[in-house]
Amino acid sequence: MSPRVLIVGAGPTGLTAAVELARRGILPEIIEKRPGPSRLSRAVGILPSSIEIFRRSGTDTPVLDEAVRFEGGVFHDGTKPVLHLTLNFDARMRIWGLAQDRTERHLVETLERLGGSVRYGATLDHLRETEDAVEVRVGGVEARHDLVIGADGVHSAVRAALGFDFPGHDLPEQWSIADVDAPDWHGRGRFMGYRLDGGNVAVVVPLETARFRVIASEPDALAALPVPMPVTTVRRSGAFIISVRQVARYQSARVFLAGDAAHCHSPVGGRGMNLGISDAAELAERIALGTTEGYTEARHAAGAHVIALSERGRRFIQAKGPVARAGVLAAMRTVNAVPALRRAVARQLVSG
């Protein structure tokens, strides 16, 4: 008899867990507190590791049909380009850009094809783990499940119900984001990074043919760009604080955490969504095989690695002070001048 599994959260992590369970014959219940599918996008980059996971369920085909394949990236010192990276010298060197809401849509369609669905507007009100079940209350209705997966983000209700600490720290800067349409932007197919005064940075990433994500370590992402961007529509804009955190344990006996509920870090490197997708795929496999005891050890190590990698990259590009900034600029110029170094950096970017 298949276990009764409840997944809390229908972002990429929760949807991947649902799809991976469903294709193994375990049809979970998945709830989402939002009233309907998101029309906004947080994550952008899709790494080869995630495409491989999507391939198992056939989700890779619609994702790749719509996604923008990055040809490379250009890093600037102010407005001057200093480092050109290409991602087309090896068939495995691929990063795709797609708005998170579109990735979620394709995962939902796969889940529906497998016989599942998302229950929107459903909030987890209570969770209590017993010896033989997990008792929950969703929208005032009591239910029992064998297992629960908390894929409900940084402010996870599942994590809070478990009483798990979320140790770490918040970065001091206020960051900002803008999701825009700019059909005449010159950086199609490439992410564009800009080092600004005071250790600040701004990045433009393709989402679709004419849709882009702008992120900056200043309060107004579009205003932070040192070059003009011909924006026709601003779909979303806002400011946020970056937290760098990770739980010590990803599981109790019957309740598991995945994605941002278990870890969070800066967007440098674009690994957050991909890490959550990998969490979900491994957890689904372990549930199907009955080997969930090793989930924390495997995924905590993976999360710690990504957090360390993201923080090294962030500190590098946000170097402050004339000596440190000059050192970063010299390093970028050296990498740009040596093809082998450019390839090594590119491989680091696409590693899952």
UniProtKB/TrEMBL annotation:
SUPFAM superfamilies in the record: FAD/NAD(P)-binding domain (SSF51905)
Keywords on record: FAD, Flavoprotein
Molecular function as annotated in GO: FAD binding; oxidoreductase activity, acting on paired donors, with incorporation or reduction of molecular oxygen, NAD(P)H as one donor, and incorporation of one atom of oxygen
InterPro entries noted in UniProt: FAD-bd, FAD/NAD-bd_sf, RIFMO-like
Pfam family, one: FAD_binding_3
Signal peptide limits: none
UniProt keyword Manganese, yes or no: no
Top-level taxon of origin: Bacteria
Ubl conjugation as UniProt keyword: no
FAD-binding domain residues: 5-183, 234-292
Gene3D superfamilies: 3.30.70.2450, FAD/NAD(P)-binding domain
Cofactor: FAD
Protein's UniProt name: 2-polyprenyl-6-methoxyphenol hydroxylase-like FAD-dependent oxidoreductase
Species of provenance: Silicimonas algicola
